Amino acid sequence: MPLHADEVPRDATLVRSLLKEQCPQWADLPLSAGGAGTDNTLYRLGAGLLVRLPRTAATGRSVQKEHTWLPRLAPRLPRPVPEPVHAGTPTDAFPLPWSLYRWIDGEEAGPDTVGDWAAFGTDLAEFVRDLRRTDLMGATRTGGLRWYRGGGLRACDRWISGCFDDCRAGTGDADALDADAPDDGAPGSGPLDFDALERLWRGALALPGSRAPHGWLHSDLKPSNLLVRDGGLHAVVDFGCLSVGLPDAEHAAVWDLPPRAREAYWNAVDLDDATWARARAWAVAVGGQRHRPLRGDPPRLRRRMPSAAAGGPRRRRALSRAGPDPASPGPPPAGKRSTEAARGRAYGGPPPGAAREGGVACAHRGRHH
Questions:
Q1: DSSP letters of 223-241?
Q2: What is the residue-wise DSSP string for 77-109?
Q3: What pTM, to 2 d.p., does this model score?
Q4: Helix orientation angle between 117-133 and 259-269, rounded to the nearest 10 degrees
Q5: Reduced to 3 states, what is the DSSP secondary structure of residue 194?
């Protein structure tokens, strides 16, 4: 079902025609649906390949970026990342660039797949640290490598403030989406405390900005992009939001993980208190951003958009908790970036009016690349 007014139609028949025209050596391999997100549709090709088709022209811009940088980054990283095989060119039938990758087998990170959350947090920290330390190889924070999450908090204050206002006004929609999740009585399992979250945001804004040098950022390390095999982190996929910038927002992804993973990550990266506080503010900001689109959206899109409150009691506790987290040292992790790890759910990008730098958009999937 289309999610965008300017979406380009695509289906398995189209994919097969593209393969016959541009990759005839693989055109007769079995083809099956491989997942979909707000930005891309995916097809598994044979046992070892993945086809990714962008939904719109804006989301197709990441194709060249991934094909340019992933082969250069991969040898320097401690876990497998997507391996581009073919950069598809636009045709009359499909006027956008598209991609073919090697398939990486694995499952999304979650309670049923991760065996040791502390080890998982440590391994994720290693990946983030090694990616950031990788030489920029001439890359700069311009064009497709410039995205809002690699910048400073203050540049986002205006639209984040609007998100808080909309979240307060639109809580009813989110609660309706969460009607099937039981309230277990634990702290934070009731209504979301947006006032407390805004205080965390304001507190981080009052801190000095990051003085860290620019480095590589994955920028979208949610659980569906962290593939697990044999209980541990195996691969990191979906580099559609690859960018260059400040590190704070990259660390915000740990609020998608249980406290044990967050604590292990914190210990492994050895962050100072100010950086941790800014990362937590980014987690709050992205959580508020995810909540905001629910209000006033058509029902079909609302069903596909995760919200800050639609992830069940565990996620709501992580987002709502404004007090100390007993399982985590340093500043209390109280914010939570909203995600939906379930395969096939959709994810939003920056809200309308945000600094969507470089027009970069993200692909989403469960087990791919």
A1: GGGEEEETTEEEEE---TT
A2: SSS----EEEEEPP-SSS-S-EEEEE----EES
A3: 0.78
A4: 40
A5: helix
HSE (CB half, 13 Å, CA atoms) of 113?
20
Q: Could you tell me the residue ranges of all domains in the chain? A: 12-102, 107-359
CA atoms within a 13 Å half-sphere pointing along the CA-CB vector of 263? 12
| Per-residue tokens: 180 | 């099937």
269-322 pLDDT, tens digit each: 988 999 999 999 999 888 766 555 433 333 333 333 333 333 333 434 454 443
Place of tokens 């986002």: 156
Radius of gyration of the chain from Cα atoms? 20
DSSP state, residue 8: P
Q: Do 85 and 42 touch, CB atoms closer than 8 A?
A: no
Mean pLDDT across 319-330: 39
- 107-359 classified as CATH 2.60.40: no
Angle, helices 273-291/157-177, rounded to nearest 10 degrees: 60
Same fold, 12-102 and 107-359: no
What kind of architecture, by CATH, is found in domain 12-102?
Answer: 2-Layer Sandwich (3.30)
